[in-house]
Amino acid sequence: MGVIGTVEYLSDLFVKKKKKKQLNTVSLKVRMDCEGCGLKMKNVLSRVKGAKSVEVDWKQQKATVYGYVEAKKVLAAAKATGKKVEMWPYVPYNMIAHPYASGVYDKKAPSNLVRDTNEPGVATLNPVEEQYTLMFSDDNPTACSIM
User: Fold this and answer.
1) What's the CA gap between 88 and 115, in Å, rounded?
2) Can you give the residue ranges of the HMA domain (predicted)?
3) Any idea what the Cα angle at residue 138 is, between residues 134 and 140, rounded to 5°?
4) Which pairs count as long-range contacts for 34-42, CB under 8 Å and 24+ apart, including other chains?
5) pTM for the full model?
6) Contact 50/69 with Cβ under 8 angstroms?
7) Sheet-wide strand order for 51-57
8) pLDDT digit string, tens, across residues 91-128
């Protein structure tokens, strides 16, 4: 290490650097009944420090905040309105191996979405099921191993 390296090392020790916040997208499921509820939620969430844009879809019960925000702070601000709020629990149904299993299928979910889960039996295919899915390939219809 030369003189320059030593100076840089010492300056790093004594000078405090600010952490750069990461650009995030936070999606919430919010109980909203009308456009007025959606407008109120949009006003509250747009006041969160670091929020660049806020989208509210009251028909889908979804609020999305984009910017340099933390999920906990956005959730706390949304709960301050007195509405029932939770993190967005849905994922596209093709991301889950068994989308119609109990605990995953939600008839109140928006179309083509199911609840996210971490259960290994529901979220992923077991080896036997995986063999069956590879047997019939949509990408290569002549690759059917039964025929």
Assistant:
1) 9
2) 23-86
3) 85
4) 34/58, 37/83, 38/63, 40/81, 41/78, 41/81, 41/83
5) 0.66
6) yes
7) 51-57, 62-67, 24-30, 85-87
8) 887 777 777 777 778 888 888 888 877 776 666 666 77
Cα separation, 18 vs 23, in Å, equals 15
Tally of residues, the chain: 147
In the numeric block, which tokens belong to residue 70? 């933390």
Buried b (16+ CB within 10 A) or exposed e, 36-52: ebbebbbebbeebeebe
Q: Letter for the amino acid at 3?
A: V
Helices (H) and strands (E) in the chain, counts: 5, 6
Q: Tokens 């747009």 — which residue?
A: 46
